[in-house]
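Supplementary notes for students who missed Thursday's class. We covered one full example, reproduced here. Read the sequence, then the structure, then the short commentary at the end.
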Amino acid sequence: MGESPVTVGGLFLETTKDEYGLLESGRIRKFQGDFIRALNNDFDIICLSAPTASGKTLCFEYVFKRGKKVLLIYPTNALIEDQYKALSRRWCVKKLRAKDLEGKGRERTSELQATIEKYDIVLTNPDIINAIANKLYVNPSQDLLRFFEKFQYIIYDEFHFYEEFELSGILLQIVLFLNMRYSKVILSSATPSKEFIKNLRTVEMIDTRNPPKIGFIEAKGQDKKTSVNDHHIKYDVEVYFHDGLIYEDNLEDVIEELRKYRKAIRDNRIKGAIIFNSVKDANSFYNRVFEEFGGYIEIDTGYETKASIKIEEKPILITTAKGEVGLNLDIDFLFMEEGFFYNSFIQRFGRIGRHKPGKCYIFTKKKVSLDDKIAYYDFLGYFSNLMKDYVLNREIIDTLFDLRCYFVVREFGKHREKLNIVFKGSKFKKFNKFFTILDKQMEELRGFMGDTLYYRAIKTYLDSLLRSLKGLRGILYKNRFYTEGGNNMWIRNMI
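Structure (token representation):
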């Protein structure tokens, strides 16, 4: 792996006078000032486009200083944990995840409500909010719907993580936050989706019946330092290109390159990451190098740990798409397969060069021809032309959003009148007829088959399907056991 590298240049962010007393230096980054001005404007939704480690947290801390209740929403529990560690040094914050609630039934609901009332800054994931919206907590009084009235500021961080099914649930949440009681919504993302912005523009505000006012703030870097006050946020990266995939096509070469780092790795002077397209290849590579590097290497694809990334404990991380979100670590080298889409490529390449210059080995099946030096945005533009970008299907989001609205109205019958107004821009009522027919057909089937195992199996499957559609991620995996005629019957649902 000794071919001549391509040097991808670094980035600088322009700074401006700190008029808000946020930093002792008296200067903040320009996009941070732009964000604060947008927050003080009449925007309903603010889209903040900024790479990780560019200073988004300062934007959030300005929101905290306003003394209002703030809800921060992260796509993974690992990110919640990381942000909690960072924020709890200065702020009184509370984590709200499923494992943070100890009670069951009504006690669990009461515990959830107490957390919401007690803390002004709450960190959670969208699954918790989705469970509230779908009445998955025991709540006969149906007052838990007032959760959407409790917070003045809603921040969705790492927003690029979500795809259509999840985004339909996020869209539902945003409509509830905007219309149950007016809240400002902040969508923070390194690579915001233009398609989802179009979905947002179809939402109706309850007071004006107009679409929400959306402001856009971007932390756009510069290739060169134009002022002594500019901040260096991305360092030069030496990039080496290789044909094919890591495990299938370049296994021995990659291992040989790792051996060159072995002494520095053992002395804890260097750290790195290896990002695969598939879990299978990541596991195979880990098994192959474990004997030689086992004490210095960690694998985290989401299946092994289901928690946070462990590179703080071991200097080399093997990961997959999970490493594309929130991996803000001080690594010196990166081996990466290019990913299936351009937005994945951006996230992976963004892991290197954050704290100092680094080396990146990119494995691609595309023919790459570049000069020995290239500016950062020119480099991304080159790959943008080479690769497909993942384009969200707006029609799928809209249809699933309508279905989710229907479920909320059906579950919270006591609030039906208000919810009909909140969801006036939705076409959820079209599902009334569908589910009326479905319920009638199931009654006829029961009359024909009786309450037999086969009828219950069909009903269980349909109920599981509907629960899956209510879920944020669209996944349900559950084993169910029945006894029929003295025999134990086992049904596995995987949706």
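Commentary. The two ends are 44 Å apart (CA to CA). Residues 216 and 435 are 40 Å apart (CA to CA). If anything here is unclear, bring it to office hours.
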